[in-house]
Specification:
Layout (H helix, E strand, L loop, with lengths): L3 E5 L3 E5 L6 E6 L9 E6 L6 E7 L5 E8 L3 E3 L13 E4 L8 E4 L4 E4 L4 E4 L7 E4 L3 E5 L5 E6 L4 H10 L3
Length: 167
């Protein structure tokens, strides 16, 4: 699992939905003069389901989230409402990366809610939440990443996501 070690607060965030890549989120730090290579953590069976997190190879900041395929999908009549949290971007421990990617062959679930989509890696209860503009990061008591919610989505965003996942 990916482990939180810090966070940064100066970033720009972009969310997109389309027919081929159901949802992707990208972050850019406007103060960075040089872009470091990206390393990837991927979860799923990697043929019918795959979610990918792009991570800055130097500092461990999350640079992208990409949902490519998902088979364990559900729709729930639930709305995520978040009290005011500072907007930050997680920095993860990348010391275990020996190559440009780590594949975690483990199923994840995807829950489509009234205003969000939740990608769940582990069914533990989260005890710590970090929030960017459109993402909520769920962490365990050991600061391990349990899942990610993409929040504040419109009905049109959710409909496009459902169509691209054939739900």
């Amino acid at each position: 699992m990916l482990k939180l070690i810090d966070f940064e607060s100066d970033f720009e965030e972009y969310v997109s939905f389309d027919d081929y890549v159901p949802v992707s989120v990208e972050w850019k730090n406007p103060k960075e003069k040089y872009k470091h290579p990206t390393i990837f953590w991927r979860i799923g069976d990697l043929s019918k389901s795959m979610f990918e997190i792009g991570i800055d190879s130097k500092i461990g900041a999350i640079r992208s989230l990409t949902l490519l395929l998902s088979v364990e999908n559900s729709i729930r009549d639930e709305t995520i409402s978040i009290k005011t949290l500072s907007e930050v971007q997680p920095i993860l421990d990348i010391s275990s990366f020996e190559t440009n990617y780590i594949d975690c062959k483990h199923n994840f679930s995807l829950e489509i809610l009234n205003n969000a989509v939740k990608i769940v890696f582990c069914e533990q209860e989260s005890v710590r939440l970090l929030k960017s503009r459109h993402c909520l990061f769920h962490f365990s008591h050991n600061d391990e990443l349990l899942g990610i919610s993409i929040i504040n989505l419109s009905r049109m965003d959710l409909d496009k996501l459902k169509t691209s996942l054939s739900i």
